UniProtKB/TrEMBL annotation:
<feature type="binding site">
    <location>
        <position position="129"/>
    </location>
    <ligand>
        <name>Zn(2+)</name>
    </ligand>
</feature>
<dbReference type="InterPro" id="IPR026591">
    <property type="entry name" value="Sirtuin_cat_small_dom_sf"/>
</dbReference>
<keyword id="KW-0862">Zinc</keyword>
<dbReference type="GO" id="GO:0036054">
    <property type="term" value="F:protein-malonyllysine demalonylase activity"/>
</dbReference>
<dbReference type="InterPro" id="IPR027546">
    <property type="entry name" value="Sirtuin_class_III"/>
</dbReference>
<keyword id="KW-0809">Transit peptide</keyword>
<feature type="binding site">
    <location>
        <position position="134"/>
    </location>
    <ligand>
        <name>Zn(2+)</name>
    </ligand>
</feature>
<dbReference type="GO" id="GO:0005739">
    <property type="term" value="C:mitochondrion"/>
</dbReference>
<keyword id="KW-0520">NAD</keyword>
<dbReference type="GO" id="GO:0070403">
    <property type="term" value="F:NAD+ binding"/>
</dbReference>
<dbReference type="InterPro" id="IPR029035">
    <property type="entry name" value="DHS-like_NAD/FAD-binding_dom"/>
</dbReference>
<dbReference type="InterPro" id="IPR026590">
    <property type="entry name" value="Ssirtuin_cat_dom"/>
</dbReference>
<keyword id="KW-0808">Transferase</keyword>
<feature type="binding site">
    <location>
        <position position="186"/>
    </location>
    <ligand>
        <name>Zn(2+)</name>
    </ligand>
</feature>
<feature type="domain" description="Deacetylase sirtuin-type">
    <location>
        <begin position="1"/>
        <end position="285"/>
    </location>
</feature>
<feature type="binding site">
    <location>
        <position position="183"/>
    </location>
    <ligand>
        <name>Zn(2+)</name>
    </ligand>
</feature>
<dbReference type="InterPro" id="IPR050134">
    <property type="entry name" value="NAD-dep_sirtuin_deacylases"/>
</dbReference>
Length: 286
């Protein structure tokens, strides 16, 4: 176990296949709140309590306000050097695959090749129909913040007025279901964000693809970046790597050297600062 950068650089220099598993901490220094810990509250709601199909069925307007806010905030921030370092690693290292739990699209905006990136939990900017019998999806919708009831041009509000609802300091007004976006195909279901909520299945085809990549050769390093590693299956990839004897490298504000096994590394600090330094032998200076 080590937090020795030079020792990590030696391991990196020999590595042919690298897997990264990223979480909300990677986007924290871009200004996006994390889910757990200090950033995990939106208004007085636990973010995780709104990310469920039950919450959407109970109060779709509230859940859309939350996601409208998240889309709005994500569009207003920029990728950081951590995203850029991983994007460069993808460019320089063909044997690199990045699994992200983040739905903010900052990896892509940093130039990360989509072939070397998998969104385990979907994207804030993908939309789908909440009617299970309808398979309508729209990818990469960048309307800010999408929900017509919140749009600045909303007919019964002066431009920008409704957007203030996204300000956590404003009183919440319930949004009538008629003002929420409906599916253009079946016209019955409400549109919902194309993210994976608690209790929902991840995309089977994507998971099979990830397994095939892992099984295609030995993985030399698993980078675990900015995640609390409590949500599966993401957390399971590092566990699998540990049992296969792969070096697991944790990059997290609260990375704990005492929790590492021999051969693992733990680097405590901001991923945006650490990743460029850790990956420099492969990616050069950012
Ligand atoms: N640099 C590195 N790590 C950081 C930073 C930073 N600047 N800021 C915070 N962290 C760490 C925290 O210490 C914490 O361990 O990032 C981690 C963020 O953990 P979570 O908020 O639990 O986020 P994540 O692991 O991505 O959550 C997984 O849970 O709610 C769901 O679907 C949601 O994808 C999300 C999943």
């Amino acid at each position: 176990m080590s937090s020795d950068v030079a020792a990590f650089h030696k391991v990196l220099g020999r590595a042919k296949r690298i897997l990264a598993i990223c979480g909300a901490g990677l986007s924290a220094s871009s200004g996006l709140p994390t889910f757990r810990g200090a950033g995990g509250l939106w208004r007085n709601y636990e973010s995780t309590s709104l990310a469920t199909p039950q919450a959407f069925a109970r109060d779709p307007g509230l859940v859309w306000l939350f996601y409208g806010y998240r889309r709005h905030v994500a569009l207003g921030v920029s990728p950081n050097d951590g995203h850029r370092a991983l994007a460069k690693l993808a460019e320089r290292q063909p044997g690199f695959l990045c699994l992200t739990q983040n739905v903010d699209n900052l990896h892509e905006r940093a130039g990360h090749s989509v072939g070397q990136l998998r969104h385990l939990h979907g994207s804030l900017f993908d939309l789908k129909c909440s009617n299970r019998r309808c398979d309508w999806v729209e990818q990469n919708n960048q309307d800010d913040p999408l929900c017509p009831a919140l749009a600045p041009s909303s007919i019964d509000a002066a431009p920008g007025e409704r957007l203030t609802l996204l300000d956590p300091a404003q009183e919440l007004e319930p949004i009538p279901e008629s003002e929420l976006p409906h599916c253009p195909r079946c016209k019955k279901g409400l549109q919902r964000p194309g993210v994976v909520w608690f209790g929902e299945q991840l995309d089977h085809a994507m998971l099979a693809e990830v397994d095939a990549w892992i099984d295609a050769g030995s993985v030399d390093i698993v980078l675990v970046v900015g995640t609390s590693s409590v949500v599966y299956p993401a957390a399971g990839y590092a566990e699998r790597a540990r049992s296969a004897g792969t070096s697991v490298v944790t990059v997290n504000l609260d990375a704990d050297i005492d929790e590492c096994r021999p051969g693992d590394f733990a680097f405590a600090g901001d991923a945006a600062k650490l990743l460029p330094e850790l990956l420099e032998p492969v990616i050069g200076k950012l």
